[in-house]
Design goal:
- There is one protein chain.
- The chain is an alpha+beta fold.
- The protein has 2 domains: about 70 residues, Phosphorylase Kinase, domain 1 (2-Layer Sandwich); about 190 residues, Alpha-Beta Complex (Aminoglycoside 3'-phosphotransferase, Chain: A, domain 2).
- The strands form 3 sheets. A 5-stranded antiparallel beta sheet has the order 1-2-3-5-4. It has a 3-stranded antiparallel beta sheet with strand order 6-8-9, covered by helices on one side. The protein has a two-stranded antiparallel sheet with strand order 7-10.
- A hairpin with a 7-residue loop joins strand 1 and strand 2.
- The longest helix has 24 residues.
- The relative contact order is 0.13.
Length: about 270
Amino acid sequence: MEQILGQDWTITPAGGSTGEAYYAQRDDKRLFLKRNSSPFLAVLSAEGIVPKLVWTKRMENGDVITAQQWLEGRELSPEEVKHPRVAQLLSKIHHSSELLDLLMRMGKKPLEPEALLQELKSQEQELSFVNTQIEVHQCLRFLDNQLPYVQNQRKVVCHCDMNHNNWLLTTAGQLYLIDWDNAMVADPAMDLGMILHWYIPEEEWEDWLETYGVELHEDLLNRMHWYIIAQTISFIQWHKSRLEEKEAARWLEDLKRLMLKVGMINN
């Protein structure tokens, strides 16, 4: 990074799982730097979804460094995700034809539910040596049985990680959704299922979705259940593959709660 900015900049790691993000500061100038960030960052910036893109530079080794405004702010608390502004921004993203067109031009293929289910089944076979749970197998059968009801749906740009720490609220009051490395073209129920199941009390789903711009009907409810179960299985498998049994067990408890909700098991 120093060879791009010069020796008079102070550069510090910004954390995160990839280790590819940095803060840079010189006097009163501050930037957020990232190596090999999402190629459609410029469109996200132009649409006001992420902080302003300042510049992009390609290094000799082929890496691409992006610099964005470093804004004072904080992540949303879990409680704050219920705010109508979150629903409005997510609706803007899901209805953006510019984002969708760019992702498709980049070669992103729409994520079909049958492909996702096949990947989960393959992962489960690979992890068969690691104390797999009966609940995971029950849920895979459930996903298989429900597959016809989630096929052939409209696809949009999905962020695919609705964790509250990806929502940035600046001191100036601007709300952003950051960290787009896992974005996909998929059923919007993928994002909606995550955010509703994790953060919104069920009795408030109808009002939250009204702010987002849709009605809570049975078809959407079933699709959200399908995707949140699939994603929870994926989290379990990911932690098991890394031998992180404590985290895998935590996600398994979430899976059991989901099974109760959809009636797979009795109280």
